[in-house]
Design brief:
By secondary structure, the protein is mainly α. Helix content is 71%, strand content 0%. The protein is globular.
């Protein structure tokens, strides 16, 4: 390994001190915002689905995708809590992808095995089409808005991932680096995306595992899901599967 010069080492130490100071300051400024607290509650509801609903019904190798999706949601919350907005949006897209992958690979053991050997990959466009055409999900995809919103949300988040739109840049025309910033407007934009992604994830998972919510099952989970699902989705789940989430 190439030796680090004293000058670079000193600059690095200064950078780390600046980083710690900046992130601590940002967290102190916005961590009490109710939008972050509500996002944490939605992450908790996803964790409950992961542990209580998906885990008993999905092989571990496929379940690992939902485990990662939950982690993606938390990473998005963490990066948003100190104002790294583009990174937080990138994690939201990953959460969507991993949720869909969990459902797909749960039903495709051969493809899952090939994927584990780096011999198979499904394009995201085809993955989304598979999810929307799944019999359990197709029934509510129009009524819940899933069909339209999944495509729109994925397209929006992809702009942040690929930096294909200047609105998602962290830097501006002054040329300075900017890894984090306290910007209430950006917090509002992230919160809107987080709520939309959470709604999509919950819609897909509840529809897919709808038998796990029959009758009076999962009362506590239903209550925790209430803040994460739109009224349109609640109505669609109630009409299609008699799943009542108030």
């Amino acid at each position: 390994m190439t030796d680090i010069s004293p000058e670079i080492d000193e600059n690095y130490q200064n950078f780390i001190e600046l980083l710690k100071s900046k992130l601590t300051q940002n967290i102190d400024q916005i961590s009490s915002d109710p939008r972050l607290k509500n996002a944490y509650a939605r992450a908790g509801a996803l964790n409950a689905i992961k542990l209580d609903v998906s885990n008993p019904n999905v092989v571990p190798e496929a379940q690992a995708f939902l485990v990662e999706a939950h982690n993606d949601i938390l990473v998005s919350l963490v990066t948003a809590s100190f104002g790294s907005w583009r990174s937080s949006l990138q994690s939201l897209r990953s959460a969507l992808e991993n949720t869909m992958a969990c459902i797909y690979y749960a039903e495709h053991p051969v493809e899952l095995y090939k994927w584990s050997k780096s011999l198979y990959y499904i394009q995201q466009k085809h993955l989304r089409l598979y999810i929307l055409d799944h019999p359990n999900i197709l029934k509510i995809s129009d009524a819940s808005g899933l069909k339209q919103n999944l495509g729109n949300e994925y397209e929006t988040l992809s702009k942040a991932v690929h930096a294909s739109n200047s609105l998602f840049r962290m830097t501006d025309n002054n040329g300075k680096t900017n890894f984090a910033s306290v910007d209430i407007a950006e917090l509002g934009k992230w919160s809107a995306r987080e709520r939309a992604v959470s709604n999509l994830i919950f819609t897909m998972l509840i529809a897919y595992f709808h038998h796990e919510f029959d009758g009076a099952k999962r009362k506590t989970l239903r209550e925790s899901l209430s803040r994460g699902i739109s009224q349109k989705t609640k109505d669609a789940l109630n009409v299609t599967y008699s799943i009542n989430i108030k």
